Amino acid sequence: MRANTAWMTVNLLLAALPFALAVVLFVPRRSHNVTWWVGLGTFLAFLPNAPYVLTDVIHLSGQARRAPSFVHAAALVTEYAVFMGVGLSLYGGCLFLLRRRLQVDGLERWRWPAELALHALCSIGIFVGRVLRLNSWDLVTRPHAVLQYVGVPRPVTVVVIVCTFVVLVVATLALRVPLAIHELRRASR
Q: pTM for the full model?
């Protein structure tokens, strides 16, 4: 488990960055100046890092097989569950802040299209990161490496991206269940 601490910490920091940006960017009535737009671009570039942590589950099976005991394997499963839960919660928090901003601005009708567009963006970003092994900062530091993949994707690529999109939609809808229960309880009082 100690071997996971460094890379999990880095991945959670990368997942927390878009949440921190969302807290700043989606403050109601914040003006949309050049700095805001640069922040939004940074937010969009780094947002896939939050749900990306779900794909790190690929490391779990090998580590669990090498675990010296059942207790150690159970601790690994718990560690990964917490890790993925935090990453997914940060992603859900970003979406919540965006939805709230759109609602406050009177743009509530754009909540679902914006969220679905972000799921699509993140699905592509996750594919680019996990399969093509590119990072968010490569958009600035190595744009040629990113642009070489622009074009008509292969069918298997489309299937992977669509499956990722479905997972993100289902996962974020599941995050809303506790909020919906809370709202129902509050409304019934």
A: 0.88
